[in-house]
Amino acid sequence: GALRTLWVSPGGNDADAGTQASPWRTVQKAANSVVAGDLVYLRAGTYAPFTLSGRSGTEARPIVFAGYPGDASRPVIDGAEVATWVVNLNNVHDVVVRNLEVIRGRAPGQNGGGILVNGSYRVTVEDNVLHDNSAYGVRSVQSTYIAIRDNDIYGNAAGIEIRYQGEGTQVLDNLVHDQDRMMTNTVGGNDDTGAQAIIFVRSTGTVLAKGNRMWQNRAQSYDYGHDGGAFEIYSASNVTMTDNVMWDNDTTFESGTDSGVECANNVFARNIAYDDNPNTLSLGMILRCARDMVIAHNTFQNLDYWVFDINTNSTSYSGKIDGVRILNNVTSMNNGKIYAFGAGIPLATMTIDHNLDYNPGRYIASVSGYGNATTTAQLTSWTGKQANGVNAAPGFVDGGAFDFRLMANSPALDRGTVVPAWSAGYAGAAPDMGRYER
After folding, report:
1. Integer Cα distance of 125 and 103 in angstroms
2. Average pLDDT of each block of 10 consecutive residues along the chain (438 residues)?
């Protein structure tokens, strides 16, 4: 537990003792004073940004900065559109930031925002509200064993970014919605970026993103008309995305790279993605950098254009997509197609099977060199994929209310194949397709 409790209040004075009766005025005063085991309570009110650099806790005795739980509202740390980062944690370990409202960090382009964790390890960012920052809500750079959980993140250009390293980092149970602005938005150049919920950039360590709810992440873009989305992988490997629910995002998942850097061994499993707004586009998964990626046991409903865009036709951003495995997914569509197979892709290395694909009266797939397949059987005859696929209505309990559990008569029951780690604990003769095992 805490060895010492320090207090900061809008009515305090940095010349005082930092006690509950005689609190400090600035969080920076506390950040300059803390040692392992200190708990810093911020009373409700508004504060200037602060930096914690080189002062750390221990695993047993972390340093904690927290909004005082007895107050009715979170303390606000306000960058006032002039601070690059509102909360800057640099070269620290065993630090917790909890129950703060972090707003209005600003810098040009892909820099600046709410909370930066840089060159650090064992840092927890939890139960905060992060909004109206020019770029990132939370950004972890060159750090490991970072926990970003139970935060409400909106109105930024990117919700959460994990960049470089990343081993042991967990992004859990956050609400990441309405990222509604771009970081880079210029006429021409094919360089616009922004409006993403959760991004992984050049991270190599094992990272987990689980239990997040992500919606309405999109913004207007000069280059693309509109841009953004739920998950983005850029030259990153070893990321697992599971048990997330995504709706009304510009894209569900996008991957890309440059300079030949691979995106390897990523997993997208047991997620739900759907479109609930007829007035906006919500696209599926752009798989242009996805070597040995596993996409399994997901449920998709009513996305636009396609669910799986398997293509390496981007001159700028394509990488290897050999070894992609798409298994045990359930897709119910009312437009477009489910698969888009581009020219020259290494189809022979890919396993695409045991998926339920339903898109009545429309296309199952477009296949470069063949055309549009209207049935699973036609797709199989052209590509060899989906030999054990199902082409039927999925039998959701109530798809209209987004209850994607399977009814007792669902054709997806027991029609999956065992995907190691992701089919564990199944009932019946074989795993069910889709997010939920009945």
Report:
1. 15
2. 91 98 99 98 99 98 98 98 98 99 92 97 99 97 99 97 98 97 69 85 98 92 72 98 98 94 98 95 96 99 97 88 99 97 97 98 97 97 98 98 99 99 97 98
pLDDT for the residue numbered 347: 96
Q: What domains are there in the chain, each with its CATH number?
A: 72-406 (2.160.20)
CB 160 within 8 A of CB 141: no
Q: Which residue has 């049935």 as its token pair? A: 375
Instruction: Write the single-letter amino acid at 35.
Output: V
What is the C-alpha to C-alpha distance for residues 118 and 104, in angstroms, rounded to an integer? 19
User: Which has the closest alpha carbon to 170: 135, 124, 130, 217?
Assistant: 124
Q: Dump strand ranges (E) for 235-328.
A: 239-242, 245-247, 251-256, 267-269, 272-274, 283-287, 294-296, 299-301, 308-310, 325-327
Pick the closest to residue 178 from 200, 192, 161, 195 (CA basis).
195
Q: Are 406 and 396 in contact (CB under 8 A)?
A: yes
Longest CA span, the chain: 79
Read off the pTM. 0.96
The answer to whether 155 and 175 are in contact (CB under 8 A) is no
Helical ranges in 103-246 per DSSP H: none
| First vs last C-alpha separation in the chain | 43
Give CA–CA dist 178/14, Å, rounded: 38
**DSSP letter assigned to residue 30:** H
- Give me the pLDDT at residue 184, please: 64
* Radius of gyration of the chain from its Cα atoms, rounded to whole angstroms: 23
- Would you state the torsion angle of the CA atoms of residues 294, 119, 151, 401, taken in this order, to the nearest 10 degrees? -10
List the one residue out of 430, 147, 423 whose CA is nearest residue 267.
Answer: 423
Give the Cα separation of 139 and 98 in Å (integer). Answer: 16
Q: Name the DSSP class of 321.
A: -
* CA proximity to 227, closest of 271, 181, 270, 265: 181
